[in-house]
Amino acid sequence: MTDSSLHPSIVALVSLAANIAANHPKQGLCQVDKLKQYGVAQAQIDAVVEIARHIRDEAAQALDASFDEACRRENANASLAAIGIAQGACCTPTKSGQSCC
Prior knowledge:
By secondary structure, this protein is an all-alpha fold. Helices cover 60% and strands 0% of the residues.
């Protein structure tokens, strides 16, 4: 049986990237401090940040393009179906019953 645990610096790098790509409010700043403590070079941290931001921005652009395409369609119901949203499921109430539409 092999040890599948990751080195803490790898965990911190992955966590940093995930925080950035997900637009997490904490932005992965805790992980940056840990990475510096582990002796990870600033250039390596910068590379991870750049890659994560690129992935985040690519995802946002793809979502925006999909949204724009759906909005251009003449029939709103057809555009909802095209992007996989059932009619009526677009706007659901919050837990307390507040409408988001």
